[in-house]
Amino acid sequence: MPELSKWLENDELNYRNSNLEEFFIKDWDGMGITKRMNEFIQNVQNDLDRVRLQDRFYNNIVMWEALIASRKQVFIRSMIGGMERRFEILDNQVNHIAFTHHAFDEHLDLCRNKRIKCRDSTRVVLTYPSTANNDFIHANYIQGAPLFNKFIITQAPMKNTIGDFWRMVWQERSPYIFMLISRKEDDRCAQYWPRKTGDQITYYGLTIMNSAVDEFRLPLFRVTYLIVVGPERDEVCIYYMLNIGKVI
């Protein structure tokens, strides 16, 4: 096995979060959480018999205007089996707030799913490098209660957006990348990171190197240690975490 660089040998993951600790001390409501989970389970069961539709949107996803009765149950099972079992969708107007998505409309060739809009007010605007032809990537900042950290959620990279993905990582100095989908099928996600130890790729003057792959450090994730080297030889060290239940 190649010798690990010093930042890997000496690093110890620090999971402490002062905001999270303060929340559990002052604001944690176990009974309230239990009640909320029970209500969520009941809502999921109720959704087996209906689809919440308002105008042309379902949870900000553009839908067709008419739902054919014979296909209703298939459609409902599909939604329940996917997103709805993982994310609670509140049955109120919050899910249908109108927003602008002009940048998205102008760069449809850079968007994996044309139905999922990228909101202008929270999108990540790419500024690196200054000579790039566009500033668009299908990615949005996610922050605020009940989250305790700032996140960026983005689509799985396509072949023509891999460079933009690493532009964003470099610009935002992102220390962690969590991959939530599988790469079992190439059309779901491009191979956007160097997979094997010692491999490297280059985009927009950035060199992304695979320093090591650890199958055992964390029980639920395969951790890949990536180093991104910029044009001035400065570095960003990244933990790339892939759920070991997924197949890449």
TrEMBL record:
Molecular-function GO term, any one: protein tyrosine phosphatase activity
Protein origin, superkingdom: Eukaryota
InterPro entries in UniProt: Oocyte-zygote_transition_reg, Prot-tyrosine_phosphatase-like, PTP_cat
Domain Tyrosine-protein phosphatase: 83-248
Regions annotated as coiled coil: none
Pfam families: Y_phosphatase
The name this protein goes by in its record: Bm5895, isoform b
Organism of provenance: Brugia malayi
Lineage, opening ranks: Eukaryota, Metazoa, Ecdysozoa, Nematoda, Chromadorea
